[in-house]
Design a protein that fits this description.
This protein is mainly alpha-helical. Helix content is 36%, strand content 4%. The strands form three sheets. A three-stranded antiparallel beta sheet has the order 3-5-4. The chain has a two-stranded parallel ribbon with strand order 1-2. Strands 6-7 form a two-stranded antiparallel sheet. The chain binds a DNA duplex through helix 9. Residues 150-244 bind DNA. It is found in: Nucleus.
DNA sequence: ATATGTTTAAGCGTAC
DNA sequence: GTACGCTTAAACATAT
């Protein structure tokens, strides 16, 4: 078993925040009565939570809900579609991965090497069409507890997920390991060679930058972060999606998979703990289809696509390519020159420095407004609630989105420091997906240590909502919200 | 010894 | 067919 320790520090969720989430959840439910929600969102048990089936998670990607910070996943809460839509409330801590690990409860611990693993389309909504396309994906794959199915994410994606979940600008290798093993049961039992692949990815993938440890910093190895240079490049459209091969079930494991798995007439999504199956109403499916069509997702959309979109946000992924295979000369060492950037992945010092630019902006007021659905401008420039339909419009349909943002962008990036280039503008299609695909990339970090300090900033840093987004939101409504907000700065 | 990091090599699938 | 993206394996070096 891995012996991992995080030498980095992590923010910490708090009970208070969790309570806020409950409130926000109730508000979210009130948003859409047409979509059935679990009326028991406060239940500590894993509910089937129709909120997911009803694509509430999709709604949560919307600007308005994103602005309603508490609705977004917080440390200690599993709302990542990867794990279903579990909503933890009160003081209940997220279930221990190991506690929920079937493989830890009598199942064999030898699922084999990653290579032999089964692939399945990810449980994101967009995977639904993938399900339909391939038609042989298990009805529910809970990667957090299912030790047999290899997550359909590339290692680079996993690394990025870990980085995203860490809420830090840099992350240690051991923390990447830990996050992966904590969140993907498969890797807890797989041959540890996957760690080699992780390291290989970090070293070879141009998107990852090594941040050497300070001389006086104890611990092994350095830190890793994402190279914003490639984020920019990707945002300019230099990325491509790639299909995953059809679902492959490891023959060695196939027998252990519940027999009789069938795709239900209504697509299903995994639920944390695998305690239930989620069905999507025809209405929601229609909505989903519209969404996926609008975002370019099609039957080939899969987590790899998500990956591609994440590339845009985080500067990783397939579009980035590896630091490798230059035809000549054979040995080409990529020098990772340290660079100053306005990256979302700023180092602590950089963030601190930029943080001073934040001024006395009233985050609480703004966020409260956002939570109440007020961050919208009507034709007169007055704040007004955003209609639900607007939340789900993409490319002119249903989702209003910021012009340019990355889920990793920090609140410490000032709007003034963010100039939207034309190429970036032209990458809106991509960015939309980036936004949608990464907004749910949240996961608890058991070793978070930040004590919940600067929770607002954390939220703005990590939930996919930041000042820029808010400003851009204002822009997207042709109002003058930007100036209104900037006036606070 | 172990963890971390780099590099090379090969194979496979996909996109062009 | 070729280039690319990704994975896996392995060797090796360095740091703790």
């Amino acid at each position: 078993m891995l012996s991992l320790s995080c030498t980095d520090t992590w923010p910490e969720g708090s009970v208070a925040l969790e309570e806020e989430v409950v409130t926000a959840a109730a508000q979210a439910e009130a948003l859409d009565e047409s979509i059935t929600h679990s009326s028991n969102s406060c239940s500590s048990s894993v509910s089937l939570d129709d909120s997911l089936t009803s694509l509430q998670w999709l709604q949560e990607f919307s600007i308005i809900n994103a602005s309603g910070n508490q609705q977004l996943p917080l440390p200690g809460q599993n709302q990542h579609p990867l794990y279903g839509h579990q909503r933890l409330v009160g003081s209940e801590a997220p279930a221990s991965p190991m506690a929920a690990d079937p493989a830890s409860m009598g199942m064999p611990h030898t699922p084999g090497k990653p290579t032999a693993a089964a692939f399945c389309r990810g449980p994101t909504s967009s995977s639904l069409l993938g399900l339909a396309a391939y038609g042989h994906c298990p009805e529910e794959v809970d990667y957090k507890t299912n030790p047999h199915v290899k997550p359909p994410y590339s290692y680079a994606t996993l690394i990025c997920m870990a980085m995203q979940a860490s809420k830090k600008t840099k992350i240690t290798l051991s923390c990447i390991y830990k996050w992966i093993t904590d969140n993907f049961c498969y890797f807890r039992h797989a041959d540890p060679t996957w760690q080699n692949s992780i390291r290989h990815n970090l070293s070879l993938n141009k998107c990852f930058i090594k941040v050497p440890r300070q001389k006086d910093e104890p611990g092994k190895g350095g830190f890793w972060k994402i190279d914003p240079q490639y984020a920019d490049r990707l945002l300019s459209g230099a990325y491509k999606k790639r299909r995953l091969p059809p679902v492959q079930i490891n023959p060695a494991l196939q027998a252990r998979v519940r027999p009789g798995l069938q795709l239900r007439p209504t697509a299903s999504l995994p639920v944390v703990g695998g305690q239930g199956e989620l069905s999507i109403s025809p209405e929601s499916q229609q909505l989903l289809q519209e969404f996926e069509e609008a975002t370019g997702a099609d039957q080939n959309w899969d987590p790899c696509s998500t990956e591609g979109t994440m590339s845009g946000a985080w500067g990783m992924g397939k579009g980035c390519g590896y630091k490798r295979k230059q035809p000549v000369p054979r040995r080409t060492t990529v020098v990772k020159a340290p660079r100053r950037s306005s990256s979302p992945l700023l180092c602590a010092d950089e963030q601190k420095e930029l943080g001073s630019l934040k001024g006395d902006f009233d985050w609480d007021a703004l966020l409260d407004s956002a939570l109440c659905g007020e961050l919208s401008l009507d034709g007169t420039g007055q704040l007004s609630p955003i209609e639900r339909d607007e939340d789900l419009t993409v490319r002119g349909r249903h989702i209003e989105r910021p012009q340019q943002w990355s889920p990793l962008e920090t609140s410490t990036e000032t709007a003034s420091s963010h100039v939207l280039s034309e190429t970036q503008q032209s990458s809106m299609d991509f960015d939309e997906e980036t936004f949608l695909a990464t907004a749910f990339l949240q996961s608890p970090w058991p070793e978070e240590e930040d004590g919940g300090q600067d929770r607002r900033a954390d939220f703005l840093c990590n939930s996919g909502v930041n000042l820029e987004q808010l400003l851009d939101l204002g822009d997207s409504f042709s109002g003058d919200l930007s100036s209104k907000i900037e006036s606070f700065l």
